[in-house]
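Annual report, structural modelling task.

Input specification for the zinc ion complex:
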Amino acid sequence: MTTRTRICVAGTVQGVGFRPFVYRHAVALGLVGFVRNDATGVTIDVEGSPGAIAELVRLLTEAPPPLAIVTNITSERLPPTGSAHFTIESSKATALPTVPVSVDTATCEDCLTEMNDASNRRFLYAFINCTNCGPRYTIVRSLPYDRAGTTMSHFVMCVACQLEYDDPDDRRFHAQPNACPACGPKLSWWTNANEVYAQGVTALDAAVHALCNGGIVAIKGVGGYHLAVDAADDTAVRELRRRKARDEKPFAVMVADLRGARDCCHLDDNAVAALESFRRPIVIAPRCDDAAVAPSVAPGLSELGVMLPYSPLHHLLLAAVQRPLVMTSGNHRDEPIAHDDGDATRRLGPIVDGMLTHDRPIHIRCDDSVARVSPSGRLQLLRRSRGYAPEPLALPQRARHPVLALGAELKNTVAVARDGFVVASHHIGDLEHLATYQSFEQAVDHLRRLYDVNPEVVAHDLHPEYLSTKFAMELDLPTLAVQHHHAHIAACMTEHRRTDAVLGLAFDGLGYGPDGTLWGGEFLIADLRGYERVGHLLPVTLPGGAASIREPWRMALVWATKAGMADCLGGQAAGEDQMLVRGVRGLIEQRQGPRTTSVGRLFDAIGVLLGAPRRAGYEAQAAITLEAMARKVPRDSAPTHPETVEVHWRGGLAVVDPSALVATVVRERDRGIAPEVIAAGFHETFGRAVASLAADLAIRSAVDTIALTGGVFQNMRLTEVVQTELHRLGLRVLVHEQVPANDGGISIGQAAIAGAVEQPPTG
Ligand code: ZN
Ligand code: ZN
Ligand code: FE
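The model returned the following structure:
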């Protein structure tokens, strides 16, 4: 009996070798019909025996190609048409381009083998790729995903490449970025000084020569330009910091292979798996004492970010220089990473000794993703960008209407949601910079078009002054203001596909509260529809507003004053201008300036009290330094001071007052106890107190699950203390893994909340 069935496959199924996969199996099973990409994914019409069709469906479900993510398969019976063959039809543009674009994928083993084979026509070719690897999101201009819709459109394939492209049995069948030295992109090298200009392998040699002699080189990668320098050369790294105007923020290092990574960092199995995955994030791991990496790469930190090469160019470069390279975003200070060639020349030209670039345009900028591995082996994404964006995540509950979510102000990402999924953009950055804001507008437009989302609700942060909020107001669409910490909790719930109420501990830097104060140490009973605040950290003054973030010594003074030890700052405050210190004291005494419940600022304060820099070279530097100190002391050697974190109950609301703990920290410091021990004791004491209160609040509200979210929960030691304590008390704990705990996750939480709203707001 012959039957005909139409199978529709949804998910990340384009640009991942799906059609050749279907072709091979359909032919092997003796089926006829066709497969094609269309706007909803891949459509397969097959005609043959019901058993063979069932087998094909089983293969699609159980053993799809490695890079494919199948989210849904439907099938429908059709009358047989008597096709003679199985064919791959060209893509059909329809009115509904909803196909997820796959992520940029690291060079596969097959391509690497060819690239290193002197007899191969792509020997040493920096743009080798196939259906299993290569650029995707960053080169896609429009859907469906076909060469004409990518930045490869102006490269006309040579006969040899076209034959591969057309051959269903070839690894490059319909590989959109397919290219070779005869027809594809070319490397070029130029220097400002003497206009030396070289192409191809000669260009690579010139860059290698510059890097091996302490030069600073801009390198065009997959999602933007990197600035590269020999990681072992302290003078060169310092010079890079000077030219880039980046004082202390740690740089990531690229190494040639896993052995090189192990020479830099202690890596457990999860770290290795992440490093070697096709997503190739930067992985932050404990640094080896004898790592051949200059101290100026990550000043004052015991961890280091490493990554493996992910483009053919990186492989060629790292093999040639034979040393770790600093590879940091190609930008000046906090500007967005340069990705457009003209812009890169303008912005990076003056700060580099040479540029290794090429003529394959990057359509969407996409920074490297950053992950960190916890002592318990959990991998936590701190930045979800290249290799992850724009991969959809399943929503815990279907969106009732299409949503655009605009994220927060810092570490901005935007997201679109509809039906059962949410797609977050790449990392956009801090919107306060004009260039970043332009990138934000482009990302909104791009995501809306790629996923054909016509939003019926625009979700934005409650903060009236965020640029993303102002952008929302200008869109002339119904808007929904989402409280910042509610969005953090919803992001964590989304990751774990939870819809019922949880107690969220949302600890972060700052977020706007509905009472006009700056929240950041919140205990909220929340689901996707709403939240109730059941506890928070003791509110304190934020003297000078945002200046307290850049100058954490101000927060140290605030908390020391709360602890009745206003004069304890001594050395630290003495380093500041005395007029300024008096001014800040005045602000604190008169309670002038915004009020905040921020746990991030508390950790900043303790960091400064224990010797962290009193002015932050980068966001949360003092808090990060504090965690690094604590992690030098095992948990079971950390002293605890159980009575020093008090809970005051004010009308059913729990207020956490750590003043006595702050006083203990100062006293121990003055007694000469090692800062590492005090830091560990602070984490242990604060973490246990918070967990015990959380358990109490959860039981009162009849919830059994606690979500730990907000940037503070990037602190692995704090997370570990709170999590083990809550487990001991019999509660379930949700922690972030795939969705950043920091503000990079806000757009996902906003989208989940806005999608769950029953009636879209009007006006
Ligand atoms: Zn490949
Ligand atoms: Zn070619
Ligand atoms: Fe936040």
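The chain has a mean pLDDT of 92.
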